[in-house]
Amino acid sequence: DAGVTQSPTHLIKTRGQQVTLRCSPKSGHDTVSWYQQALGQGPQFIFQYYEEEERQRGNFPDRFSGHQFPNYSSELNVNALLLGDSALYLCASTSRLSGQNPLNTEAFFGQGTRLTVV
Amino acid sequence: AQTVTQSQPEMSVQEAETVTLSCTYDTSENNYYLFWYKQPPSRQMILVIRQEAYKQQNATENRFSVNFQKAAKSFSLKISDSQLGDTAMYFCAFMKLPYTGANSKLTFGKGITLSVRP
Predict the structure, then answer these.
(1) CA of A110 to nearest chain B CA: how many angstroms apart?
(2) Do A107 and B4 lie within an 8 Å CB cutoff?
């Protein structure tokens, strides 16, 4: 059973450029959330997708956008990159169909994409 | 809005000893989950233990147990018989209920770096 996979693992971009990060959720999961983790900090919620629509959004500017495909995979796009966008970007998947069973509350994370903006 | 506070940036423990990591949170919600996640150098977030707020009994998972004090909004993690493989960053996280996918956003603390000494 494949877990959450993210690509690429590392990326270096120049300030002002655009970047796309990709995530495939765990098998059986239909909801993808994206988090930004600055060095030495906890992850910060960016947004969440299910049924191919953005459902929740954290306190991030419109430069951060996303997409979810019919196979539940997702992309995170960041435009006009700033030096401060350098971080580890984590994808987490969950399943809405699990209902309120506490055993199904676990979010499974990928290994992240390390983005460096120079 | 929910906040999660981890005030200890670093801790160190001798192998086989016991260590307690602290976490406090603030919320107006009555139904929620609390989690401890481990992030080793491989970067992948791994769930250590979860606690449902409506349960008075403290959760335990092998060497890991929590002390959940709902009135004090405190949620500490105790690691018994510490092992070298426990060396990692540990994050306390909050998730509000009901769990329907739309509410599966996690709010993380800043994390604590735990080092286990041989």
Answers:
(1) 6
(2) no
- For the domain with range B3-117, which CATH number is right: 2.60.40.10, 3.30.390.50, 3.40.190.170, 3.30.1360.170? 2.60.40.10
Residue B44 has its nearest CB partner, among A50, A55, A111, at A111
Regions of chain B where pLDDT drops below 50: none
Q: What is the CATH number of the domain that holds A104?
A: 2.60.40.10
CA distance A96 to chain B (A): 5
DSSP letter string, B62-89 = TTEEEEEETTTTEEEEEE-S--GGG-EE
**pLDDT tens, A20-64?**
999 999 998 889 999 999 998 999 999 999 889 999 899 999 999
Interface contact A25, partner B, CB < 8 A:
no
Q: Could you tell me which of A14, A8, A9 has the C-alpha nearest to residue A83?
A: A14
- Residues B26 and A106: their CA atoms lie apart, in Å, by 21
Of B43, B110, B111, the CB nearest to A88: B43
The residue type of B39 is Q
* CB of B46 closer than 8 Å to CB of B38: yes
- Report chain A residues whose CB lies below 8 A from the CB of B93: 42
Domain count, chain A: 1
